[in-house]
Amino acid sequence: MPLPPVYETHRLVPAKGFDDLKVGDRYPLPSRTLGDGNFAAFQAVSLDNHPIHYDAEYCQALGHPGPLAHGLQVLCFTAAGAGLFPHEIGDALLGMIEVRARILKSAYPGDTLYPALEITELKRQRTTGVVTMAASVINQRGEAVLEGEHVYLLKL
């Protein structure tokens, strides 16, 4: 089913096809300062009730300045949909087919996280293309908090 014409007139950025993408294209994502709302929302979605993520007294007793952001919560901040990449490729996106991540540093309430994606590999296939992107998150001190990879499948 084709997209309604209004979609094209309200596009945020010019459309790109697979062949328009380039290794090195970078997609910064909105920064986030972690607060109680982030922790509560992630707890509600994940059902993770371990006190390391939600109990300040428990965490301080273990030597942490506050609750630790869940690694999956930090990974969520690298969602491509928060940036311009999916708006560029529009309905060519078939889906995310792989994700990997390493948590390098803890993130706490009050930390500001700066996520970004960058194309590292493009594989053209017969009817589809595979886009591999490096995912990174740094904190307000410029320290790497997460590094990983997203892989997307696009129609040609």
Task: Summarize this entry quickly.
This is Acyl dehydratase. This protein is an alpha+beta fold. The chain contains five helices and six strands.
Determine and state the CATH class: Alpha Beta
CATH homologous group name:
Hotdog Thioesterase
Summarize the amount of helix as a percent range. 10-25%
Number of helices: 5
Q: What is the gyration radius calculated from CA atoms?
A: 18 Å
Per the CATH scheme, the topology name is Thiol Ester Dehydrase, Chain A
Q: Determine the N-to-C terminus distance.
A: 17 Å
Portion in beta strands: 25-35%
Global shape: elongated
* Helix/strand/pairing category: alpha+beta
Number of strands: 6
Main sheet overview: 6 strands, antiparallel
Order of H and E elements: HEEHHHHEEEE
Q: How many structural domains can be distinguished in the coordinates? A: 1
Poorly predicted sequence stretches spanning 5 or more consecutive residues = none
Mean pLDDT over all positions:
95
